[in-house]
Write a structure and sequence with these properties.
It is a single chain. The chain is of the alpha/beta class and 500 residues long. The chain has two domains: 161 residues, 3-Layer(aba) Sandwich (Leucine Aminopeptidase, subunit E, domain 1); 322 residues, Aminopeptidase (3-Layer(aba) Sandwich), CATH 3.40.630.10. Helix content is 36%, strand content 19%. It contains 17 helices and 17 strands. The structure holds ligand BES, manganese (II) ion (MN) and zinc ion (ZN). Manganese (II) ion binds next to loops.
Length: 500
Amino acid sequence: MQLSFGAPATVGSGSWVVGLAEGAALSGAAAKADQASGGALKRAISVSRFTAKRGQAVEVLAPAGLEASRIVLLGLGKAADFDGNAAENAAAEAVGRLSKAGETEVVLEIEAPKGSKLKPAALAAHLAMGAKLKSYTFNHYRTKDLADHEMKVAKVVVATADASGAKKLWPALDAVAGGMFLARDLVNEPPNILSPAEFANRCRQLSKLGVKVEVLGEAQMKKLGMGALLGVGQGSERESQLVVMQWNGARGKGGAPVAFVGKGVCFDSGGLSLKTGAGMMGMKGDMGGAAAVTGAIRSLAARKAKVNAVGVIGLVENMPSGTAQRPDDVVTSMSGQTIEVLNTDAEGRLVLADALTYTQRTFKPRFVIDLATLTGAIMVALGAENAGLFSNDDKLARRIHEAGQAVDEPVWRLPLGPGYDKMIRSKIADMKNITGTTNAGSIAAAQFLQRFVEKDQAWAHLDIAGTAWQDGEQKALAPSWGVGWGVRLLDRLVAEHYEG
Ligand code: BES
Ligand code: MN
Ligand code: ZN
């Protein structure tokens, strides 16, 4: 899809999209469109149930006296709530609707309603972002009916009074969209294709953007003592990998990096504690944390963020076999702590344990944030609306919460504490990987991770099991199974607090 910014002009062929806030009268571009159509837009409103709520629209098809194929009036909702997010949703709504209708060209001439704080340049950039995010498709494995699945809209012009301002804001948003698309691709890829080695290959591609990429194989990880991560992968025919991605964009030497760690279980069968058939479906997405980390590093590099950032992802396949880890095994982690593995399906925490230790000891980061599709229990608690946040640092937690609000990737903080830590005491080792009850499952998992957080290290854990992919209703800005959740939040967090 080709995106551009231009000054408002008469719309040629294609669809002309204008907006209206709740309770407002037609004005600006919407009034112009009404006049140009000889009042057809006003009539269309009067014969419909349109009240300008978000998500509503009226269309005038083939308006007399105009070259445009249609006029679309979008409801923008309440003027005071019309922010960058609302603009993105409006553009996505328009482009999605028009694509279904078979439209190929769209002019978005949506103006900020009176009472909105959005400036024209920011509004235009967010409209473009909404159209872009909506244009994502994943059709690599279709050989038939491709046209039915592709975005019909090929050209979007955002008409704005401040095209030059919009063009300055756009590259940063475009970079984030690129990171989100990469994360979506990785989550959508089937597990026969996206092995740990293939995932690592995709990471290597980031070197084109100036990212330093190192890949550790099993022999190197064994030398480092990563018994927890290696235990998870030992039942698979495919080699486990640890990928270390560094973006060094800070001015001067810059100092300690920010660090992101991702769970990359390319397929989670449960191992010998085998999942059910239904429970295994979707477990190709169990690398969603690693995908978010990879996408975030891509985004920072693509927009040349002035920060030193490192992304470390543990890539494994959790399979049952004669060489698989057994329930009751005891493994020794890189930290030296021992773990009694009572359920091989609680594998994500084992992978993260060693990835966390490696990251902290190698980089002494300013903070470390891990992302993982870690527990089914987080969906019981929060559904798909919020990711779970756990942290030992109130300031970092607040910043993550704010970044999530700003980019519409909300998180909700849950508690940690010694009472919960007791749940993972083992009879024979330093800890066990499950509690033996179903109570507080997400907290117990976070408590496990916290045992691998080193002294005075600021740390946060995001449990994204409910947000990394979507089986039910699709989000307006995420038109695929893989959401790409977390890329935008991490990018925003860095942009707000850690650049310069
Ligand atoms: N990858 C799963 C968590 C998960 C479940 C993510 C469903 C998305 C949807 C994780 O490895 C897992 O299997 N967790 C177990 C832990 C249990 C054995 C303590 C779970 O949540 O049931
Ligand atoms: Mn599992
Ligand atoms: Zn898992």
